[in-house]
Fold this protein.
Amino acid sequence: MVQLFYYESRGKCCRKVFSYEGYPTKVLLYPYEGWAQPAMISYWLLKTYWWSRTRCKIVEVTGTKKMATRGKMIDKGNGVMWITGKFKETINPDFKMALTTNVSNSDFQLGYSVTGTLERGDKRKGEFQLTHYAMVKRKGY
């Protein structure tokens, strides 16, 4: 059963869920209400490289605009993964995305297998702000 795999993988490594979903993984981004800048609903496509377990290609799709960059995936254990990187032509170039498979029951009922947050800012200044909520839907939803 497909649902049984997702239920059993709660709290496990995010890579297992991503490999089961198939690459590229579509991460839906929903804007945070407290963020001061206008934000469109967008999504990211994550694709790992065959030659590295820690590097990934990230394509951000916002409307008809696409931006691509490379990111670093850091597995923190207990189902938590950090993805960090930098988009070159933006106001807030650096980003940190925290993803977890420890989803709440309500999120699981809505069809999400991985949830998290996206923070953007400037790494040199040490300023990061929460900008989006990140969700990965299960197959069939």
The CA atoms of residues 88 and 131 lie 18 Å apart. The first strand starts at residue 25 and ends at 31. The beta strands are 25-31, 42-48, 55-62, 65-77, 80-86, 94-100, 112-122, 127-137.
